[in-house]
User: What shape does this take?
Amino acid sequence: MFWSFTSHCSNSKSLKRCQGCFHLAACISGDRLSTNNITQSEDRILLNALAFVLGQLGSAANTCLKYRASNLEMMEGTHKEDLLERWMKEDLITTLDEGEQIVQHLVNVVLLESFQNGRSIRMPEEIRKELLNFYKGEMNPILLVQLDGIGLTEAPKNEAWEEANEMYLMSNKISKLPDNPNCPLLSALFLQESLPQSLSKLVQLQKFILRSCELFKELPAEIGKICHLEVLDLEETEIKKLPVTVGKLTNLTSLKVSFYLSANGNRNNNPSNRIIPQNVISGLFQLEELSIDVNPVDERWNETIKDLLKEVCCLNRLHFLKLHLPVAILLNDLRNLSWMHFRFIVGNHLKRIISRLPHDSIEFEEQESCLKYVNGEGIPTVINQVLQHATAFFLDHHLTATSLSEFRVKTMENLKFCVLQECNEIEAIANANDMDDSDVILQSLEYLSVYYMKNLRSVWKGQSLRWTSLLFLKVLKPYSCPQLTTIFTLGLVQNLNNLEELVVEDCPKINSLLVCPDKPSWKRWYLPKLKKMSLHYMPKLISVFGGEWISQSLEWLSFYDCPSLKILSPGVVHSSKIKVITGEEDWCSALKWRGSEGLKSRNLDDIFIPIERDIDLRTQLAAISDQLQAQMQITEPTKQSGGCFSISLTLFKDKDDLH
Assistant: This one.
């Protein structure tokens, strides 16, 4: 049995999927479909689109998809390796390679979503519902009781529970479930904005999820009576503390909880004011996942964490741990990080109401093993020790470091994702003067973003650079660095053969992305895999790449508020793969196309999309990107299936289409 408080799908991601389904339905009819000529309901369009896609799948893929649609875990997500092992055990596939191909194909046609860099898979809720409807004649009958969002104040009568497999009661005002609901077939109960008090009646409950339920203030002691509970997820709630009865849930394999700072939360000398009572966690000996979010100013946590770390070390099955550690020295109490995935925030910091890095924060959270170091001074040895096992590092407001090289870059050989923010003493990301000539720098790094660094002058400082340093970097994003003058030197750019995306924003001193006093006498292509380049709020930019030639793979070029950029050279816009160029309309009209007149006369009108000054830039770019991605996702599966449908890339060009 599965009880879930989750956010309903009335959000931007859901809208994007619906939008993609409109395009998919248009694919069936062979015409471009706009929101003005839709005559069918969204449900019917989605069902028709699914019918078409499922008809193109092979029998093995259909069987695997049917199996996953009947498993509720797919909505929350599952590790791809676990998914493939289950398919093997059920004889749905004969080899792991076959399973990999099926998963990738289902992702391509938007029936599954991949996340955590492709390591995990989930199925969108609306897709799952439609698949159940589509397959209902071939599966065991599933009765869905859908009463969400209709203003109920009381739970359905007992008769409705007896045969229900899934019950949807989100966005109602139900305060109590039936005292003794007879629900032998119920596997899923969805609740949101509804806070029933009768938890203890659901004694067979195995999964209890109250995610993003901010009205939930207190977990009742009766939770200890649900002895079969395996998953307890209270993330993004506002409970004040865990009841001691949680210690009775000895079947728990996953515990995720967020705590709220109460008015008297700073009285830490009273044991009753602890966030987590002593010996509760150590008794959960089957625990595999433990995630605890706290308000960093809650002084009760400073006392709780010391005892908690001792208890955590007793959990031999634990393979994922998320904690906030107020001081770095507490990391010494943890062990066996080499085989554990972790997410640590180290240091005291203020909890921002609105994150300045919304997208990076989300991506950071999805990495395997993450270390966020906040308000640090100096570099404790234990930080470098943890970095040996980290795949993601977020350095936030460090007070003394002048470059990332000071963090013993030799220990960062597993690091793939790195974010630097408000480290005002840093002048260069990497400084060759701090390293030996033989040092390989950040050889596994794939993603690097830099924000609000007021003294940053260059990405790389010094001449020596081993050829494998930064070799696998795919994304580079410097934002709001007022003193930054050098993105690429010739020595650095020659190493970045795998760079796919470059975003430079609000860096007012940059004249050109490439600083190369002695230009090579021969013609050479730089950044051969670069697909996406965005340059915004750069008033002194006069040349994109100093006249040098870059990627033939370029698909996206975005410019905004670059008034000094008056020429686009052929070295930048020669790629035949360019699908989008964005910028202000008057800027584009005044451009000089020195040596690139062929592009201007041939297809500029087809690929240029004007940016409006009175609409938020990121909102417009996100809308354009979503449309481009939707078209590409539909085009690729169609090509793979050998179908006869052709799709032309038609992007929104009217301002109204961007809302």
Summary: Residues 1-40, 637-659 have pLDDT under 50 and may be disordered. DSSP finds 16 helices and 29 strands in the chain. The radius of gyration is 27 Å. The longest helix spans residues 617-641.
